[in-house]
Specification:
The chain is mainly α and 69 residues long. The longest helix has 33 residues. The protein is elongated, with a radius of gyration of 22 Å.
Length: 69
């Protein structure tokens, strides 16, 4: 009469941790890439920004973001 299955929750709880650890190198690389491109953005002059269609305000907003976003 008791046909319920015993489902272990430890495997379900360990998956998010494993995914986070597995994704860590990808997240780290992406953060470093964002920091690099923001440094390059800071070096552009007004003419180069206008060629890219980026305003001075857009550049300032992008530069104010932390590297992880």
């Amino acid at each position: 009469m008791n046909s319920l299955q015993d489902v272990s929750t430890s495997s379900v709880q360990s998956r998010p941790r494993l995914n986070w650890v597995r994704d860590l190198p990808t997240r780290l690389f992406a953060s470093l890439e964002r920091a690099r491109t923001r440094r390059l953005l800071a070096q552009l002059n007004d003419h180069q920004l206008s060629d890219l269609g980026i305003s001075h305000a857009d550049r300032v907003n992008e530069m104010d973001k932390p590297f992880w976003r």
